[in-house]
Amino acid sequence: MYKGKSVILASQSPRRKQLLEQAGIPFEVKVVETAETFPPDMPVPEVPSHIALQKALAVTALCSVEDIIIAADTVVVLDDTIIGKPKDREDAIRILTALSGRTHQVITGVVIKQGSNENIFAKTTDVHFKSLTPEQIVYYVDHYKPYDKAGAYAIQEWIGAVGIDSINGDFYNVMGLPVSRVVGELEKM
């Protein structure tokens, strides 16, 4: 319960669970599989919020109108192109090679829904990787297996410590949830 309301996290992401727990928000997880699709002409910055809304709507039937549903989706964007989760080892190496020595954006779309009230927002963080050697990239992929991560990396893992030389924005947004903003929005409710 959060201020007398049940909070539902519409995500199986261990990182989002960890961040809500760190923020001291009691919650339960409810997930309905949803296709993470979007219209082909949708502007890139709107995509994560669109997908997050689909996730929130999918669990609505499992919740009461008093429940507060939190759903999120994170995308990695390089040169106005969404970089998804890698298909396999070679794809992860290709993605990290493309990110090496460059700045990309991490955009997390968030939906906080209670009954018919929907608060939808997105947060963008710029992340700059230093130039990574092929050996560093292969080491990371082989040891951390980042196949379930947009952009083929997790900032809180080894590659974040040795490969990222700057971020402009919210660190936790890169992990998958701009938790400070989420807490602020919940406080307003």
Key features of this structure:
189 residues, alpha/beta, Maf protein, seven-stranded mixed beta sheet, 7 helices, 7 strands, elongated
Explain how this protein is built.
The chain is an alpha/beta fold. It has one domain: Maf protein. 35% of the residues lie in helices and 26% in strands. It has seven helices and seven strands, in the order E-H-E-H-E-E-H-E-E-H-H-E-H-H. Strands 1, 2, 3, 4, 5, 6 and 7 form a seven-stranded mixed beta sheet that branches. The longest helix is centred in the N-terminal third of the chain and has 14 residues. It is elongated. The model has no long low-confidence stretch (mean pLDDT 94).
Task: Give the helix/strand layout.
Layout lengths: L6 E3 L4 H9 L5 E2 L17 H14 L7 E11 L2 E3 L5 H11 L3 E12 L2 E13 L4 H11 L13 H6 E5 L2 H5 L3 H10 L1
Parallel strand pairs: 1-2, 1-3
Antiparallel strand pairs: 3-4, 3-5, 5-6, 6-7
Helix pairs in contact: 3-4
Number of domains: 1
Largest sheet: 7 strands, mixed
Average of pLDDT? 94
Radius of gyration: 17 Å
Count of helical segments? 7
Quick rundown:
By secondary structure, the protein is α/β, with parallel strands linked by helices. The protein is 35% helix and 26% strand.
